[in-house]
Design a protein that fits this description.
The chain is of the alpha/beta class. 36% of the residues lie in helices and 17% in strands. The protein folds into four domains: 3-233, Rossmann fold, CATH 3.40.50.970; 239-356, Rossmann fold; 390-564, Rossmann fold (3-Layer(aba) Sandwich); 579-643, Alpha-Beta Plaits (2-Layer Sandwich). It has a seven-stranded mixed β-sheet with strand order 3-2-4-5-7-6-12. It has a five-stranded mixed β-sheet with strand order 9-11-10-13-14, sandwiched between helices.
């Protein structure tokens, strides 16, 4: 049995995302949807794993907007539902979200945004809290694992109480850390779906679910938000700890509460610093804040990443300053805390120490010297594609085709593992000078392709992954075809959403629930809009190179090349080798070869290393995936591949 279905009152070690999933189960969720994106993916994966036992419908949707729409349909029919995504996904969902908060909801619906301060696995560290204030929906931020479970359950109740979406925000250090959680009861009663729509327009329970009349429904939403504020003032998830009259008050939320607690303990200031932990960060619990702000004159606001909480607290204070007196605020705006990146206990402790003029215990004099000596022993490890990654072969082909063409062509990039092609030679050979949101590479390429009348004569290429193709590329591709954009569009099809854990997408014949479903063929879609389509294996350098060269020479139309090869880490390929790879030392000329160590200096697969003693290339058999591509790039044919014969 899955630990997600543990019995009432049992204590279980949960990942933060698993705690959120357990809270949804205790709330009686029936429908869960999402799009894969670190650090959010485990919420849907956990619920999919227990969907049969709990009679849930769980879906990996084509993108976040559709995920929210599917979840909203469940809410309209009286069921409890959840849509899960990372911070960038909220931007994608925001078009529908704007209308959903206007129309109102029925069954409890929670929008979970798992965010990535520090951009540990993202192209930016943008956050979605501002959507809560802009669209006037409650925002909840759990600060530990027990609270992640409990507050998720409460979020569904809150949603039904106000008839609208509730936003729950997690961060990487909450979603991907683990802690003990005491479980509550799992409900036994199930709801029956029924969509009522014959009542009055303003009756959110029986009328049509539409966002008009705009002004009347907007007024209703604001009235309910005042009810939420009163509930937040009494919420047990908000709490103050510390002295009655602290020298400094820290106001914080989410994982920053844990950083703040540790920082105060590190400095030994438990009797001088108070901490107000807010789990309900929009709308602010005004009465609680006013009561707590009276305690001191100095306030430090600790949050990630943008000063959302700081801004709103300051705005609130301007209206009550006559009652609480003048306050001095510290945080992002005055530079006490950094305005980018993750926080940690050390950063918070330094900030508290500067405010209160308290010095931390210094480390031994030789500590920094020892650290520097140790750091010098650590080998440099730059970001690179995995051994056997088809993207390395793809960008090798693309780089060579552009160089052979000679017109300084370039690739408009997209989001995925292949984003590394915008970085150093160890990844994509500097072929991808643009990188923005999912699908934007194709839109940009279509735009560049129409600049010929202004003198642009460089070949335009664009790449995307197979999951990204369905998520956001199709409209831009249709636009390019309709407007006769001369671009070479390359789909890096590695048979799954590889970057976030191989979740299925519409190109595969399996769903999140492991059901057999119809696969939607990328080539068929591209042919249907009239594009010229070719399919190749990126590991076949010669064949792929010929197609790319001909596509670049073929002017005036949309060309689509699908490079199809499963990810080396995918379940079907992991641990299996097509070829055994060896270096024939008699043939390898090392530095004397005219290739200038092409294999280890330029191609740079992690499985290809340089033996400094022998001055020869060497294959690390432990990490070699056996793709055989390196054998095709050695001019001396010193890298030898032997086909692996599988018994039976």
């Amino acid at each position: 049995m899955s630990k997600l279905l543990s019995s009432d009152k049992s204590t279980v070690l949960f990942l933060g995302n698993e705690a959120i999933a357990r809270g949804a189960l205790e709330a009686g969720i029936e429908v869960a949807t999402g799009y894969p994106g670190t650090p959010s993916s485990e919420v849907i994966e956990s619920l999919a794993g227990v969907a049969r036992e709990r009679n849930l419908y769980v879906e990996w949707s084509v993108n976040e907007k559709v995920a929210l729409e599917v979840a909203a349909a469940a809410s309209f029919a009286g069921l409890r539902s959840m849509a899960v995504m990372k911070q960038n996904g909220v931007n994608v969902a925001s078009d529908f979200l704007l209308h959903l908060t206007a129309s109102g909801t029925r069954g409890g619906i929670v929008l979970v945004s798992c965010e990535d301060p520090g951009a540990l696995s993202s192209v930016n560290e943008g956050e979605s809290r501002y959507f809560a204030s802009m669209l006037e929906m409650p925002l909840l931020e759990p600060a530990d694992f027990q609270e992640a479970k409990d507050i998720t359950k409460w979020a569904f109740e809150l949603s039904e109480a106000i008839g609208n979406v509730v936003m729950l925000r997690s961060v990487t250090r909450m979603s991907h850390a683990s802690g003990n959680v005491t479980c509550g009861k799992l409900p036994t009663k199930r709801r029956k779906a029924s969509f009522q729509y014959d009542g009055p327009v303003m009756d959110s329970q029986t009328g049509p679910m539409i966002s008009t009349p705009v002004v009347a429904k907007h007024l209703l939403r604001q009235q309910r938000l005042k009810d939420v504020q009163r509930m937040f003032d009494e919420s047990p998830f908000n709490r103050y700890t510390g002295p009655a009259k602290p020298q400094l008050l820290i106001i914080t939320s989410s994982a920053c509460f844990l950083y703040s607690c540790e920082a105060v303990e590190m400095l030994g200031l438990e009797k001088k610093v108070g901490i107000l932990k807010l789990a309900t960060t929009w709308p602010l619990p005004s009465k609680l804040l006013e009561k707590t702000l009276r305690k001191t004159k100095k306030i430090l606001i600790v949050e990630e990443v943008m000063p959302f909480l700081e801004e709103n607290v300051k705005v609130m204070v301007t209206g009550i300053v006559d009652r609480i007196g003048i306050k001095t605020f510290f945080g992002k705006y005055d530079g006490t805390l950094p305005s980018v990146g993750e926080l940690n206990p050390d950063i918070v402790a330094d900030a508290v120490g500067r405010i209160l003029k308290v010095k931390r215990k210094s480390l031994p004099a030789d500590y920094q010297t020892d650290v520097q000596k140790t750091a010098a022993l650590i080998p440099v490890r730059e970001q690179t594609f995995c051994a056997g990654c088809p993207h390395r072969a793809s960008f090798w082909n693309i780089h060579n085709a552009i160089a052979l063409d000679g017109r300084k062509g370039f690739v408009c990039g997209d989001i995925g593992c292949y984003s590394m092609a915008a970085l150093s030679p160890a990844t994509g050979y500097h072929t991808m000078p643009t990188l923005h949101s999912m699908g934007s590479g194709t839109g940009l390429a279509g735009g560049f392709a129409k600049l010929g009348q202004f003198g642009l004569d460089q070949p335009i290429l664009t790449v995307c992954g197979d999951s990204t193709f369905y998520h956001a590329v199709i409209p831009a591709l249709i636009n390019a075809q309709h407007n006769r954009a001369d671009i070479t569009f390359i789909v890096l099809d590695n048979a799954g959403t590889a970057m976030t854990g191989f979740q299925p997408h519409p190109g595969l014949s399996v769903s999140a629930l492991k059901d057999v479903v119809p696969a939607v063929d990328i080539a068929a879609i591209c042919k249907a809009i009239g594009a010229k389509v070719a399919i190749s294996d990126p590991f076949d350098l010669a064949a792929t190179g010929r197609i790319l060269t001909s596509f670049l020479a073929d002017k005036g139309s949309l060309k689509v090349l699908i490079l199809r090869q499963a990810c080396a880490l995918s379940p079907e390929k992991k641990g299996k080798k097509t070829f055994d790879i060896k270096v024939d030392e008699a043939l390898c000329l090392g530095d004397a070869c005219g290739c200038n160590r092409l294999c280890t200096r330029i191609f740079r697969c992690p499985a290809l290393t340089w033996d400094r003693d022998k001055k020869k290339a060497v294959v690390d058999e432990v990490i070699c995936a056996g793709c055989g591509v390196c054998a095709s790039i050695c001019p001396q044919q010193a890298i030898v591949k032997t086909e692996v014969i599988t018994p039976g």
